[in-house]
Amino acid sequence: MSAGHDDYAVEPIRGLPEQLPAGERILWQGAPSWSELAKSVFHIRAVALYFAVLMLWRGAVHWHDQHHAVAATLAALSLLPVCAFGLGLLALLAWLSSRTSVYTVTNRRVVMRVGVALPTAINIPFKVIEAAGVAINDTGAADIPLTLTATARIPYSTLWPHARPWRLRQPEPMLRGIPDGVRVAGLLRNALHEASLPPPSNVVALRRGAKTYAAVIDSAEQGQTAAG
């Protein structure tokens, strides 16, 4: 396992710091959805709710003092530029994080090219993946955390925001906000199995209403059977 700085302009293959060795092939490449990052990493919905409450509170204070609907409305709306700037900044950070990230799954490893200001390529060979899991939200986007062996430790600061939340002592790399999450999770499971390694085990769902890994794989297989 390794993590090193890279330059997007000189990547021999998009998302990879070097040419693939003989016998290794890319199975899947993708990037996190910026809207999923905005919601799950930068908590844009919670911030929007905070601003809405703040505007209502300001309007209510002016209504209590002046009993004038127009003045109360204008007072509340006076915060709108600040709210728009704050939410726009969070959306921009999410978009930049998505645009500068590439997740790659080969038949031997997972590679995460991440970093807005300082590009970093993180190589995670299958042999250091102890377990993997997935949580699917209602849009079908997936978060796929990878539990690494005790000796394979990547600093949380290097991984963020591509890390499972609150796993600070033993950070877990996480492929975040992946569209078509069921297919990607199944692909990773099969790749680990074909590499003669134990298939990923289940993990606790990461978000309310999410499914566990096994349930996702079962539902995918059932869907394929029904389609056949």
Q: If you average the pLDDT, what whole number results?
A: 79
Total of domains = 2
* Rg over alpha carbons: 21 Å
Query: According to CATH, what is the topology of the largest domain?
Result: PH-domain like
Span of the ends, CA to CA: 40 Å
Number of helices: 7
What is the molecular shape?
elongated
Element pattern in H and E: EEHHHHEEEEEEHEHH
Second-tier CATH architecture of the largest domain: Roll
Instruction: Tell me about the largest β-sheet.
Output: 5 strands, antiparallel
| Strand order, largest beta sheet | 1-5-4-3-2
**Beta-strand residue fraction:** 15-25%
Task: Let me know the number of strands.
Answer: 9
Features:
228 residues; alpha+beta; PH-domain like; 2 domains; four-stranded antiparallel sheet; 7 helices; 9 strands; 40% helix; elongated; disordered C terminus
In short:
The chain has 228 residues and is an alpha+beta fold. The protein contains 7 helices and 9 strands. The strands form 2 sheets. It has a 5-stranded antiparallel beta sheet with strand order 1-5-4-3-2.
Describe the structure.
It is a single chain. This protein is α+β, with helices and mostly antiparallel strands and 228 residues long. It has seven helices and nine strands; from the N terminus they run ββααααββββββαβαα.
